[in-house]
Amino acid sequence: MSVAQPREDNPCRPRHFRPGPAGPELQEGPAKQWIETSRTRLIIAGALMALAFLVIAGRLVEVSGFKAGDSRLAHNSAPAPILTSRADIVDRNGVLLATTLVTPSLFADPKEVLDAREAAKKLVQALPDLNEGEVYAKLTSDKSFVWIKRQLTPRQMAAVNALGIPGLDFQDEDKRIYPQGSTFAHVVGYAGVDNKGLAGIERSFDDALRSRHAPLQLSVDLRIQAILREEMAKQIAAFDAVGGSGLVMNVNTGEVLALVSLPDFDPNDPSASPIANLFNRVTLGTYEIGSVFKIFTVAMALDDGVTTMNGGYDASHPIQIGRFTIHDDHAQNRWLSVPEIFQYSSNIGAAKMAVDVGADRQKEFLAKLGLLKAPNFELPEVAAPILPPVWHPVNVMTIGFGQGISVSPLQIATGVSAVVNGGIYHRATILKLPANEPVAGRRVMSESTSLDMRKLLRLVVEKGTGKFAEAPGYVVGGKTGTAEKVSGHGYAIHSLISSFAGAFPMNDPKYFIMISIDEPHGNKQSFGNATGGWVAAPGVSRSVERMASLLGIQPVDEDSPEIRRSLMVGLPAPSGRKFASN
Amino acid sequence: MSMIRPGTLVWFCIVVAVGYAMFQVKYEVMQQEQTLASINRQITDDREQIQVLDAEWSYLTRPNRIEQLAGRFLKLSGMSAAQIVSLGDVPLRAGASAALAADPASTPSAPAAAAAGTRLAAVTGGAQP
What we know:
The complex is a heterodimer.
Chain A: H1 30-66, H2 72-76, E1 89-90, E2 96-108, H3 116-126, H4 132-139, E3 146-149, H5 154-163, E4 168-177, H6 185-188, E5 190-191, E6 197-199, H7 200-204, H8 206-211, E7 216-217, H9 222-238, E8 243-250, E9 256-262, H10 294-304, E10 312-314, E11 319-321, E12 324-326, E13 335-337, H11 338-343, H12 347-357, H13 359-368, H14 393-400, H15 409-420, E14 424-425, E15 442-443, H16 447-463, E16 477-487, E17 490-504, E18 511-518, H17 532-547, H18 561-567
Parallel strand pairs in A: 1-7
Antiparallel strand pairs in A: 1-2, 2-3, 2-4, 5-6, 8-9, 8-18, 10-13, 11-12, 14-15, 16-17, 17-18
Chain B: H1 6-60, H2 63-73, H3 94-102, H4 110-127
């Protein structure tokens, strides 16, 4: 090593020792050969080592310099989002209507349960809704996995843990919760225990709810829904009725704000209610809605030009057609002007109007208003209307006053919305539309027809059959309807469907509202009456009073000159055109 | 025996120092990762809690429950349209209208102020059940 110091000058070197040559000097023959070989091997080994280090160095530069972006840290820095199996459903204001919570489910491995009889006894004490015999059977089965109870509450979980039974364990499962209970039963629907949507929005948006993360926002408003439901329930109770349907819709967009079908059920436990309660009367039920249909007949006649607001028809005698007789419920027995026909709900007048329009144009007009085929709506429970197979002249007449055609309340809502909103038909939707964006629609009647209809609808509430629908300040307008339910071959005289369909405020309609009560019975307060004007209209009045301010509608003075003038119906002077005695 | 050169010593020290520093950083990163994981777990737990509380909030603020509670604890009844007036209909305060009436140049006349006063009385009267 230390060649720096000359050997001879080393003072420590023993005198008698002469060092031999340290390196291979002056070697000859085979020795020189060996040295050459080892030197070559050394160089090769050295080169290999250098190469290996070079590779490592290169990799080091690559990792630290160029791959900094996908280090493990970057992945870990954000917390994992909660991956529930279904997205939430919220109302138009973001109130939770359906959500998914992680809940524990109790299962057992029967092979590990030591004393099945004792375990079953204890379990039933902790979870009283279990059956001891069934639990015992499960715990003695020869499987290695049995569910004891799905989806426990935290309290039940603590109780089971406190038992300390070996062989029991929990597994987290998703549970669908409907905090609003039955209020939105028919809108939101429900999902089964395996998180599959079985009804309502849960069913129609099943795939979307499974795959998306952001909540699904509906157009319904919890407050409006609660008001409508409560007022309907009051009317149903007061008139000892079997059920009812109700709807509030934005006439300018087609958004449904409330959709109530009573009786309803608790989506948290749908099997607890009778199966009939699952039926959605608003979208799946079709009814002969009666006089409400005259809204469409009069609009059609006015828009078609077969009559005008100053025109009229002779309603002094019932119409005989074949074996049918058409007569009026509120018979005036005289010539009636168009506003009077609407106001007194004259079947004779409406039938004559429909005949004047004719079958083809009647069909065409009703089709434009979406009344002749199943509506395109987001809920899976949507019914097609029931139409006469052949459109005979008698059908033209009866359809004119709402008999012989069964449509769903949803179709009525969509159609009437188009009649009052200026004549534009918007598809009904239960999804919230972006605010301040024009909504696609198509014109189905002239603006002036729509204005005339607004006047007529207001007239019904001001002076006609719908007086009880009045909500002071909110200019309600609408039409009553009382129809006998179809039963077997004819009509059941004592089972009625009593409805009121209208909109408010009538000087500038914003919202459609409809209440329809199924099989009401007259009571003392109604002097035995069970018609739409007595049964449904008061519910509409109270609902409008309560919901108008929530909907941002400012009350107006109905008697102010502007409102009067805008909705005034020019009644023709009862000159020499009077018929009969009246 | 050969001597250790100063250069070698320096390199040896650097190797030891770098090795130490590397392991130090490694352990620190491991610890940070553990902290991060526990914070993330905490966040996930909190979010789950929030979801449960959201559901509970929605359940507790059911309109019919609020209505029941309001009926029990508040002395309020449903609002009627007569109780809603526009800002323009709100009369000036008594003092302000008196001051305006005292100034002959100002427009509101005494009868107008009086009318506004009676309208206010009508509104408050209507508000009482």
